Amino acid sequence: MSLAAISPGGPFSDLLFDDGPFDDAGRSSESDSWLMSYLDMLMLLITFFVLMLALYGGQLVDRDLETPAVTALPLHVPAVRPPAPLPAATVGDFYRPPRQLAPAPLASDVGFYSPGPVAVPEERVAEAPMVFSVPLFDLPDATPAAALPQIDGVEVTAIPHGFNLRIQDHLLFDSSAVGLSDSGRQLVERLIPTLQAFNGTISVEGHTDSVPISTPRFPSNWELSAARASAVVRVLRLAGIDGDRLRAIGYASTHPLASNHTPTGRASNRRVELVLQEANSPTP
């Protein structure tokens, strides 16, 4: 190439001495705008991948290191044998259930000593009737009804260690009287064989109703009830019963059997009771 070609007036003078592609004033405003957008996009992508690597890269490496290798073992499934068909029942035969199979032995560890089944003898316990006798408190003696004395006009009941003979006052006394009537004396005399055969004490108890009484002889029901009990004791003593076994007690209206607000109740409360207690029984 000659110097004339590269001289300022030559054909290449525009390329060598002018700004050419480096002249910003000569290019349009949109000629290099795509380059900036491209660089920004590359920077964003690089930044995104760096963040992804920083966040998940360590976890992936640790997971790969910690995950043990899993070896698949062969699975042996025992074959299932179908149950044997039951024999067909013929006409007239009854159903018989199959025998109960013995329980399977317990599984033991392989390689250790496994003892055989030990026969345990069955212990037979003698069956005894469930009978309990707990004396919580004094119960009445078991006296059959046939053993109780049967006396007309006398209510006989069993009590602990004895009997109670209850007689209404109209069977023994006349109205407002303390001496035994003829029929009352006969009634007491019918009791004498039973009382003589009994081995124990005999308490004659007089009872009245709540109607007050006030006479020169009986100022209250206490004197009346005690006088009627004493009248019965006097007859028993004359019949030969030992006086050491006899007692006369007056309770007035303190032990009622029924309400004193009705005539029937007051009539039930007017009575004489003979309480028979065995010789060695505790005092009530």
UniProtKB/TrEMBL annotation:
InterPro entries recorded: Bact_OuterMem_StrucFunc (IPR050330), MotB-like_N_dom (IPR025713), OmpA-like (IPR006665), OmpA-like_sf (IPR036737)
List UniProt keywords, sorted A-Z.
Answer: Cell membrane, Cell projection, Cilium, Flagellum, Membrane, Transmembrane, Transmembrane helix
Q: Can you tell me where the transmembrane regions are?
A: 35-56
What compartments host this protein? Cell membrane
From which domain of life does this come?
Answer: Bacteria
**Which positions fall inside the OmpA-like domain?**
161-280
The record describes its membrane topology as: Single-pass membrane protein
The principal location of this protein is membrane
Concerning its family, UniProt says: Belongs to the MotB family.
Q: Which PANTHER family match?
A: LIPOPROTEIN YIAD-RELATED (PTHR30329:SF21), STATOR ELEMENT OF FLAGELLAR MOTOR COMPLEX (PTHR30329)
From the Swiss-Prot or TrEMBL record, give the protein name.
Flagellar motor protein MotB
Classification from the root reads: Bacteria, Pseudomonadati, Pseudomonadota, Gammaproteobacteria, Oceanospirillales
